[in-house]
Amino acid sequence: MARQARLGIILAAAAGLMLAVNDVSVPFSYERGFSPPTVVLARFGFLILTVILLMAVLRLKPVLPQGRTGHALGSGAMTGLATLGLLGSFAFIPVSLGVVILYTFPMLTALLECLHARRIPRLLEILCLVVAFAGVGIAVGLNDVALDPKGILLAAFASLCYAVSMTWNSIKLREADSTVVSFYMAISGIVTVALYVLASGSFVVTPEPGLAPWLPLLVTCFFFSVAFVLMFRAVTYAGGSATAMVLNLEPVFVIGLAALLLGEDLTLPRVLGGALVIGAVVVSEILRGRKEAIVIEPVG
């Protein structure tokens, strides 16, 4: 069990890195003329193809244990709504503020799992979550931000949806194969996003000819798909709250990649915030390793 939990933590960190590559590559798709909802729709479509290929290689049938299909579809719908909520928040508030609000989801996930387990979070658990959240805020920076209530509510909605999805998988789907679970989540996710795109008329692709303008979109879709599969495999192994905690590393990875690939400055607040996040994650996993039961037991 302990070895499996550690593997889950490693997979969660890898998922955070893959998501960071996705984050850095997304603006290049926008520059080519793709609308944000179109990018989200393409990512879920690519995810479905990736999972189908993976199931074929692993010889997995697209069948979940009785009663689990509905849970997977519901969790996937939550991820689709979370993506749309975060996307919508950027129309009203700066991206930096939206990201900071989004990263309340590890705290919400921990609270939801504690609520389900009918236990009170330990003080050090809460402290690690708060320090990680503060680190994200310091690293991203919130100088002179505009506080539009609509944007704040949309970002908070995205955070809640991600937390619900993580908790849902941790409680109801940990005994199911995560690859098959990801397949059903991708289906409901793409349906959710497609309904929004149809209703809003926001499907826009690049006007540029040739394959070159599509390459940034393919890069984004690839890394998003890999991250999605790794993330929910991590939930299977380590639980929702542990996975969510490690995913705090994503903004730190984004800052590092932006400095490495885009030439952005590594300012003192970014380094300090990143150090706080990494420190909080390390301490959290040390505390988790000392528990007699490292992860929350699956619930049938």
Give an overview of the whole structure.
With 300 residues, this protein is mainly α. The protein is built from twelve helices and no strands. The relative contact order is 0.22. Residues 292-300 have low confidence and may be disordered. The longest helix is centred in the first third of the chain and has 30 residues, at 2-31. Helix 1 (2-31) crosses helix 10, helix 1 (2-31) crosses helix 11 and helix 7 crosses helix 10. It has one domain.
Quick structural gist:
The chain has 300 residues and is an all-alpha fold. It is 76% helix and 0% strand. It has helices at residues 2-31, 36-58, 69-89, 95-102, 105-117, 123-140, 149-172, 178-200, 215-238, 240-246, 249-261, 268-290.
Task: Indicate the structural class.
Answer: mainly alpha
Number of helices: 12
Number of domains: 1
State the helical fraction.
Answer: over 70%
Low-confidence sequence ranges: 292-300
Biggest sheet architecture? none
Shape: globular
Radius of gyration: 19 Å
List keywords for this structure.
single chain, about 300 residues, mainly alpha, about 75% helix
SSE topology:
Blueprint: H1 2-31, H2 36-58, H3 69-89, H4 95-102, H5 105-117, H6 123-140, H7 149-172, H8 178-200, H9 215-238, H10 240-246, H11 249-261, H12 268-290
